[in-house]
Amino acid sequence: MFRTNDTHGQQSFFDGREWLPDTLRQALADSWADTFYREVFCQIPEELFAPLYSDDEASRPNTPVNVLMGVEILKSGAGWSDAELLDHVRFDLQVRHALGLDDLRTEIFDVRTLYNFRARVRAYAAETGINLYGDVFEHVTDEQLTKFAVAAGWQRMDSTQVLSNLADWSRLELLIAVVQQVYAGLPPELQALGAEEAAPYLAGRPRQVSYRLPSSETERHLQRLGELLVAWEAVLAQVAPESEALALARRVLREQYEMTAEGLVLRAAAEVPSDSLQSPHDPDATYRVKGGKTYRGGYVANVSETAHPDNEVQLITGLEVEGNRADDADLLAEDLANQRDRDIPVEQVTVDGGYTGPTAEAACETHQVELRPTRLRGGKSSAAHWGWEAYTWAVDEEGQPVRVTCPEGQTAEIAPGPGAERYLARFDRTTCEGCPYFKVECRVQPRVHKPPTLYVGQREVEVAQQRQRLRPEDRSIRAVVEATVRSLKRGLRGDKLPVRGLTRARMFLYGAALMVNLRRVHRYERKQAAKTAENAEQSAAKDPVFVFRPVDAIFAYLHHICATFTSLLARRSRWALT
């Protein structure tokens, strides 16, 4: 049975804070834990998770969702293991306060409860396509944007590669792992029949098995592994047509082998597609080479954050996680559509060259967003010629070029050229022949029986105009998001996630993004509190205010009595002497 958790707002006699000295109690109130409690924990929309639980009122009540979601966020931000996480929840006063567990008698959930919670969220995502962790991220972030009056009209983006928690296998080790998994999916009676043939590949982990096989026989074993998969695929198609083992066998046979008239043939390594299976334990992870670096079995995370210079705190507003072969421009389009659905008024986006191209331009036009790239990808001219951006282009309302001016100031009308979206412009022969750049750097081509002619395409004109509109001053603004990406990966071991699967990768990174925002909000609050205290001190120094305190009055009265009594004693002594 689902129920929300609101008991954390009720103070208990066993509240751990009440047993602390005043200095420590104040330090706890000023720490990140109190900010987390107010700005994250109390904002978690628990009702979103109601579909994960039974409607039967007689069933056992659920473990508080905001506690489970809260520990997931903390785990992602700190990079704790589950064992470390539970130790912090049990014994760390800051973590308990962050999760509303100030009552020291509160029973702590078992780690199995956390496993079941994750499994339910994954199953719900597979069934509905909705990642509830993502919904929590959006709800909490939207509340923070409103509360702290963060201007979200100007944003910046960057993407980063993250690896799944997979071993870096060779091709042989991968196929051994696949054979082991498909064998485990066979019915028991079929396992007994195939045990003898598969025995050499089942005795140990893939790397251990591969280590025992002579390297000179690698090709033979790769062929043998494929033949085993073909035989098991035929059997599974009859007895278990909907099984995961059958889908796995068919995928690997399609990607790694080719069926010819001579039989099964192993594909050359260069012929294996980049979206091929990298591990049977994570079918979503793909292969990519970017910037000369290989990412085998991973994902790409796209981060967008506010960038207006007037904001006192900048927050991550969007996070998309896809297979690492996803293009940056597609991720930008997805992000803009998502923020539109959340009513976030994005007006301009500062990006690097990876986000440029027709897809990004079309998305920005659809959502009426100004794309502010610091550079462009592709279309760069060789050093031997002027770039298209060196020319000045006049276009009509539909964006078609109608006039061009060369860098030396000669203007020509543009006419339709040979082919779709192709144009030409004819220049004055005398002027061109008198130009020192003609036939050298200029793109205008000499013609024998016609005036010198410039040939250009529609896309070349569009890219040239974009290069002319580049914002070099935005480079420092965009560079900040690279630090945000590093903060997002704070809980990773290098570039590797501690989880497997696209859904789990998203769950982890949504929590990490919430923690990045939380740290920024906490720093902002402490800065504001310091300003307030400083202003109060300055005001008190300029205009001191008398504050009546009864204790001070009592001490002053007692001091007056003592002084009077001392004075009387002194007078009596003088009288006695006289």
How would you describe this structure to a colleague?
The chain has about 575 residues and is an alpha+beta fold. The protein folds into four domains: about 120 residues, no CATH class; about 200 residues, Nucleotidyltransferase, domain 5 (2-Layer Sandwich); about 100 residues, no CATH class; about 80 residues, no CATH class. The chain contains 19 helices and 13 strands. A hairpin with a 5-residue loop joins β11 and β12. α8 runs antiparallel to α12, α11 packs antiparallel against α12 and α13 packs parallel to α14.
Task: Name the features.
578 residues, alpha+beta, Nucleotidyltransferase, domain 5, 4 domains, 5-stranded antiparallel sheet
Distance between the termini: 96 Å
pLDDT average, as an integer?
A: 89
Total of domains:
4
What fraction of residues sit in β-strands?
Answer: 5-15%
Reading off the top of the CATH hierarchy, the class of the largest domain is best stated as Alpha Beta
Query: Remind me, CATH topology of the largest domain?
Result: Nucleotidyltransferase, domain 5
Overall 3D shape = flat
Relative helix content = 40-55%
The number of strands is 13
Largest sheet data: 6 strands, mixed
What is the CATH-assigned architecture of the largest domain? 2-Layer Sandwich
For this structure, what is the CATH homologous superfamily of the largest domain? Ribonuclease H-like superfamily/Ribonuclease H
What is the gyration radius calculated from CA atoms? 35 Å
The number of helical runs is 19
Q: Uncertain regions: pLDDT < 50 for 5+ in a row? A: none
Structural class: alpha+beta
